[in-house]
Amino acid sequence: MTDTRERRLRALADLIRAEPMSSQEELTERLRMLGYSLTQATVSRDLEQLGAVKVKREGTLRYVLPDQIGARDWAGVNLERIIRDWVLEVEPAGPLVVLRTPPGTAHLVASTIDQAQMFEIAGTVAGDDTIFLAIRDGNPIAEVIRRFEALMGRGRTDTIV
Predict the structure, then answer these.
(1) Whole-number Å distance between alpha carbons of 124 and 134
(2) Collapsing DSSP states into helix, strand and coil, what is residue 93?
(3) How far is it, in rounded angstroms, from Cα 1 to Cα 126?
(4) In 3-state terms, what secondary structure has residue 8?
(5) Cβ of 10: how many Cβ atoms within 10 Å?
(6) Is 79 inside any structural domain?
(7) How buried is 56 (Cβ within 10 angstroms: 0-12 exposed, 13-18 middle, 19+ buried)?
(8) What single-letter DSSP state applies at residue 136?
(9) 78 and 147: one domain?
(10) In sequence order, what are the residues at sequence separation of 6 or more whose Cβ sits closer than 8 angstroms to the Cβ of residue 105?
(11) Within 10 Å of residue 123's Cβ, how many Cβ atoms?
């Protein structure tokens, strides 16, 4: 890793720790103000490198680093493992996304999604082996599907927020 990248990662981590940052665009602009020449795509890769995730705290969405995640964020931390282990299929269905799980496990997955407070998910409805995800307005269904496929260990991983 280059010295410039190490300094940029350190600056990014300092920004996340110092104040609530809710978007990659906001982080990109702040880093530019600090003298870094970069794109939003670079910030996206840097966030992934740092292990930063978006959580809802005090009513606002913000990026946090792994060492800032408390017990109440358990579901967010374990979301990837639970999705990878229990979601078999993801598909669009009009304004909804449908997840298929093994029989008897849909409630576990839906509960974890609800507790993780994913910003693009308004709510879940779980049956025995099927979950309906209600997607918030303004969040493209295709992006939500790509995010779940990435969590499942399939498809592109560069779209995870």
Answers:
(1) 6
(2) strand
(3) 44
(4) helix
(5) 11
(6) yes
(7) middle
(8) P
(9) yes
(10) 86, 129
(11) 12
